[in-house]
Amino acid sequence: MTSIEPAVHDAVVLAGGGARRLGGADKPGVRVGGRALLDRVLGACADARTTVVVADPRPTARPVRWAREDPPGAGPVAALDAGLRHTAADDVLVLSADLPFLAADTVRRLLTALRAGAAEGVLLTDADGRDQPLVAAYRTAALRRELAVLTAGEGGLTGLPLRRLTAGLDLTRVPDPVASFDCDTWDDIAAARARIREHDHVLDEWISAVKDELGIDLDVDTGTLLDLARDAAHGVARPAAPLTTFLVGYAAAQAEGGPEAVAEAARKAAALALRWAAEAEQEETEQGQAEQQKADKPGGSGPDAG
Questions:
Q1: SS in 3 state form for the chain?
Q2: pLDDT digit string, tens, across residues 233-286
């Protein structure tokens, strides 16, 4: 797939299910890695022009439009129909609210694949090869066509499964066992919480959570900041690492800059830390030379003196 820039698209997030396998718990509000499942999904589709969440309104990390199927609890097809009524883009993401590992890169991959081919939808498949129609990008007109067919043929959409809708679509499938992982049970929640704390994932997950909590939408090179922290800790003192990275962020914010401003501030601070360390090494070398010269003088305090 080519990495073309996504055109305008909308998103519909279904978040109004009964969560029976979670004992009726508020599944969209369950926290994984310190963030509500719904907020994690909203972060992944943040580039959508309009994001519609089909559920009762609640506080979210970013503004969305709210919709509700009629009657509430009428099922996913009715919920999708309610959400689509608030969209206008040619392409639409359709997502469930329980995807802890959905990322913006996956969303872009779905949209890119949709626009690169002739299919009416691109969806992920899970670890067992099963279709995941709520992790997908569709052509909006195709969804509306099939919804109209079902409405006319069934006399309504209440209680219909999604497979009745997707059966009439020409679909492309993309295997992705991680991004398609959804949380239906408490065991799923526990597995998701354990995964994000694994060594390979915990740093990226933490940075994403902090940015979400602080309302920061900024992609920075974490490697650059970690190198800076290392240089400050080794060349100055260990407490200098967190303080220096904080000052770099503050300087970039004062300059009202983006990732480039962070990189430039980090470069300057890293150069200063290296100069600081070099100066300390030079002073240590000069002190050692002075002591050696003193020891080499007649009557000095060398090992053979006295």
A1: CCCCCCCCCEEEEECCCCCHHHCCCCHHHCEECCEEHHHHHHHHCCCCCCEEEECCCCCCCCCCEEECCCCCCCCHHHHHHHHHCCCCCCEEEEEECCCCCCCHHHHHHHHHHHHHCCCCEEEEECCCCCEEEEEEEEEHHHHHHHHHHHHHHHCCCCCCCHHHHHCCCCEEEEECCCCCCCCCCHHHHHHHHHHHCCCCCHHHHHHHHHHHHHCCCCCCCHHHHHHHHHHHHHHCCCCHHHHHHHHHHHHHHHCCCCHHHHHHHHHHHHHHHHHHHHHHHHHHHHHHHHHHHHHHCCCCCCCCCC
A2: 888 888 888 888 888 888 888 777 788 888 888 888 888 888 777 776 776 776
